[in-house]
Design a protein that fits this description.
The chain is 43% helix and 11% strand. With 297 residues, it is an alpha+beta fold. The radius of gyration is 21 Å and the shape is elongated.
């Protein structure tokens, strides 16, 4: 999973995802590979083709801010992808801190107590999308996960996820994009590497989305769910960074006031979740148990 050349991998994926039409070039007909050619990116960015080739190959790892600005313009990167590009270019430079290493899998106790007093479903997620803590309302909402505590494994390896998430493709892409950003900046996290390796082996859909190298954090997203007990729900997911705990997020699920989803969610959370539901325990390293159903479309 872990690339020895994350910067080159990222810009190579962005080049493949950028069409000639997007940058104002005439389409010369069918191409053997998707996206722009190396010499086209070099020309548009104002650098030599040899220099750009060295960037993709990992022989040049720390381009100047001017070069990064040019690549951002050529590839049409948004704010999150631009920040990610700059972080990759700064990796390994003195004083930048490099990769963060293993993530902290312990949810802050004061936040656990705080969300425990809420009627709104709330979870604390780790950088690998492990549910580190959940309140009773979230346990009821996410009861379909059973004992699984990792949102990526649930989405890609459990057939129930495709019934639960009515917009499965969008949810899956968002989670892969979030994991992509985390993986590139946590090169020493062996558990994260094992998670990505497991998903690459067992899910064709994950492999396809991982190769696209989309990078974005899920801070606000509409979730259309089909819950086995509550029926169809439309909920707004909102996440907040947990200061002092790198990579952790506090996530909440809310329905529009007065909507049928609000009434259905209220009825659902009035019944406590049974034992063995997701996030009943702190996550532990997850061994790959072997092939499972639902690993692809």
């Amino acid at each position: 999973m872990q690339s020895v050349n994350p910067l080159g991998e990222f810009i190579r994926a962005r080049r493949a995802a950028t069409s000639p039409k997007q940058v104002g070039l005439s389409d010369e007909g069918p191409r053997r590979t998707a996206g722009l050619r190396r010499h086209e990116v070099a020309m548009l960015a104002g650098v030599s083709e040899g220099y750009y080739a060295r960037l993709e190959q990992g022989r040049e790892k720390h381009p100047s801010d001017q070069v990064l600005k040019a690549l951002t313009r050529v590839f049409g990167l948004d704010a999150e992808a631009t920040e990610h590009l700059h972080r990759l270019a700064r990796q390994g430079l003195r004083g930048t801190g490099g990769s963060r290493g293993p993530a902290d899998d312990r949810a802050p106790s004061h936040l656990v107590r705080l969300i425990g007093s809420w009627s709104t479903p709330a979870v604390i997620l780790g950088p690998r999308f492990d549910i580190l803590a959940a309140n009773d309302a979230a346990r009821a909402l996410l009861s379909v996960m059973g004992t699984e505590r990792n949102l990526l494994r649930f989405v890609f390896l459990d057939p129930a996820a495709r019934r639960f998430h009515l917009d499965w493709e969008e949810i899956a892409r968002t989670r892969v994009a979030g994991l992509r950003a985390t993986a590139a900046l946590n090169a020493e996290d062996e558990t994260l590497r094992a998670l990505v390796g497991q998903l690459l082996r067992r899910s064709e859909d994950f492999t396809r989305m991982w190769a696209e190298y989309d990078v974005r954090a899920k801070t606000h997203q509409t979730n259309r769910l089909l819950h086995p007990d509550a029926g169809q729900l439309t909920l707004i997911y909102q996440s907040f960074t947990v200061n002092g705990c790198p990579g952790q997020q506090l996530g909440t699920y809310q329905a529009e006031p007065g909507s049928p989803s609000e009434a259905a969610l209220r009825r659902l959370v009035e019944t406590p979740a049974g034992p063995g539901s997701a996030a009943d325990e702190q996550p532990a390293p997850h061994d790959d148990p072997g092939p499972a159903g639902g690993a692809g479309r």
